[in-house]
């Protein structure tokens, strides 16, 4: 990108044959990871396994830190911080790549199990910004944990294997759907209609008088849950179960240049950040990956970006280092830090071209996207990078051969969105949103370009090394 102004390059045309081979290898590993880890707990567990294989140590088990140490810290199985201690003092600031690992999905209500019409159901409550009609009539899986009264945990992962049953949310047939078809798309399926079919075979048990018990399908499901998992109906109150698409991440197109999968917002950034820090050696500044929960619903809660997990962990790292500890130094470390808020942008979709501003849209295949500001319409709720930091990252990527582009989330009056950038910026550090573009964002099956995914990994790598 140069003298003629901003002209994004096509990544495929810029990559050498040997690099293209690496792109496909990298994306196959990512696809396998994404298929296997569809919830926050699964992603964190798999991340820890990968990190420990690569020599990272649990911060809680260390008594001191020095340059070159590779550490991680987990928060409630739903957030993680990964760091490599740099050669420079911590007070010079950290180089942070922050992303979120939660994705839109469907959760269970606290008291979910009921029977109606000869079927057993789970009552649900959707999580994040979804189009509800996209979640009906597709195969669904159930992932998560159930915590019993004695504190023990029961793991559930059902619907992913070929011989597993799947779960299902019904839709009305077109023959009887006249009234539904007359509604707005947002009203065609309501939140209260997202009830999960979980069983249909009634129990044969009879009561003391020899009469068939009521709610026999529900009774049969309770009996099955007790027999298979050792849980009761009341145990479901303390469950953390998520309903996700029972779909593998797969290549798209004759040329296999695209990748479709559930949860790419924002696990595509989380995975590439994780791989980037694993492949980083002896950074000048302390390199940090910050993967948090709850971004899709406002980043609240003990595992979200608005908790104190980040600053508490930085304080712990400072306390274990050879540097002087004080509240002032801690604040200077955070304030002197620089961050890439690793999140996705919307890829231009020719089928819906009227909501995109073509000259300021991101395109599949044209590299990692730099998003200068977020927010909605008049930049409401925006986090906006300074011109100086935008220039620094642009220069870094150009020098390093990173394929990049700029993007906004649609036309000004069409909507918008946010990331964790605003919460990092609240610490008075420089922050810029940076991640690949997606088609069908927030759907059960999102699409990204493999060359963009790989350049996202490269972008985070050079940022850590800078």
What do these coordinates show?
With 466 residues, this protein is of the alpha/beta class. It has 2 domains: 11-103 and 262-465, Aminopeptidase; 105-245, Aminopeptidase i, Domain 2. Helix content is 28%, strand content 24%. It has 12 helices and 22 strands. A hairpin with a 3-residue loop joins strand 2 (70-75) and strand 3. The protein is globular. The two termini are 21 Å apart.
Taking the sheet with the most strands, its summary is:
9 strands, mixed
Query: Which CATH first-tier class of the largest domain would you pick?
Result: Alpha Beta
Give me the CATH fold name of the largest domain.
Aminopeptidase
> What is the helical fraction, as a range of percent?
25-40%
What percentage of the residues does DSSP assign to strands (E)? 15-25%
Shape: globular
CATH architecture of the largest domain: 3-Layer(aba) Sandwich
What distance separates the N and C termini?
21 Å
Number of domains: 2
* Largest beta sheet: strand ordering: 1-2-3-13-4-14-20-16-18
| Average pLDDT over all residues | 95
CATH superfamily of the largest domain, please? Answer: Zn peptidases
Number of strands: 22
The stretches of 5 or more residues where confidence is low (pLDDT under 50) are none
Class from helix and strand fractions: alpha/beta
Count of DSSP H/I helices: 12
């Amino acid at each position: 990108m140069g003298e003629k102004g901003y002209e994004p390059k096509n990544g495929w045309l810029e990559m050498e044959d040997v690099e293209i081979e690496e792109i496909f290898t990298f994306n196959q590993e990512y696809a396998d990871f994404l298929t296997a880890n569809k919830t926050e707990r699964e992603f964190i567990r798999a991340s820890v396994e990968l990190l420990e294989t690569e020599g990272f140590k649990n911060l809680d088990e260390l008594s001191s830190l020095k340059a070159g140490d590779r550490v991680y810290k987990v928060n409630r199985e739903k957030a993680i911080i990964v760091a490599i201690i740099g050669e420079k003092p911590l007070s010079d600031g950290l180089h942070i790549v922050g992303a979120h690992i939660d994705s839109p999905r469907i959760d269970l209500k606290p008291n979910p199990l009921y029977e109606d019409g000869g079927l057993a159901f789970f009552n649900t409550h959707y999580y994040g910004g979804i189009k509800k009609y996209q979640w009906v009539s597709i195969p669904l899986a159930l992932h998560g944990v159930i915590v019993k009264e004695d504190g023990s945990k029961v793991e559930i992962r059902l619907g992913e294997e070929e011989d597993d049953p799947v779960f299902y949310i019904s839709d009305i047939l077109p023959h009887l759907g006249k009234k539904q078809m007359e509604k707005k798309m947002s009203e065609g399926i309501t939140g209260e209609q997202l009830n999960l079919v979980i069983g249909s075979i009634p129990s044969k048990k009879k009561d003391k008088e020899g009469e068939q018990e009521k709610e026999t399908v529900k009774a049969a499901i309770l009996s099955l849950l007790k027999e298979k998992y050792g849980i009761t109906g009341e145990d479901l109150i303390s469950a953390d179960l998520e309903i996700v698409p029972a779909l593998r991440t797969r290549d798209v197109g004759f040329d296999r240049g695209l990748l479709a999968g559930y949860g790419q917002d924002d696990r595509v950034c989380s995975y590439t950040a994780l791989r980037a820090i694993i492949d980083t050696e002896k950074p000048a500044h302390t390199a940090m990956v910050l993967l948090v929960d709850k971004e899709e619903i406002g980043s609240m809660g003990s595992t979200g970006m608005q908790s104190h997990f980040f600053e508490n962990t930085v304080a712990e790292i400072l306390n274990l280092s050879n540097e002087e500890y004080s509240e002032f130094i801690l604040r200077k470390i955070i304030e002197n830090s620089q961050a890439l808020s690793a999140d996705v942008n919307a890829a231009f979709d020719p089928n819906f071209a009227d909501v995109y501003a073509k000259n300021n849209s991101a395109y599949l295949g044209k590299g990692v996207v730099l998003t200068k500001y977020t927010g909605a319409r008049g930049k409401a709720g925006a986090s906006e990078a300074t011109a100086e930091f935008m220039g620094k990252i642009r220069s870094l990527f150009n020098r390093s051969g990173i394929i990049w582009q700029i993007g906004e989330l649609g036309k000004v009056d069409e909507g918008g969105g946010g990331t964790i950038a605003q919460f990092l910026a609240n610490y008075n550090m420089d922050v810029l949103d940076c991640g690949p573009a997606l088609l069908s964002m927030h759907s059960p099956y999102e699409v990204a370009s493999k060359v963009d995914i790989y350049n996202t990994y490269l972008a985070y790598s050079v940022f850590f090394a800078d």
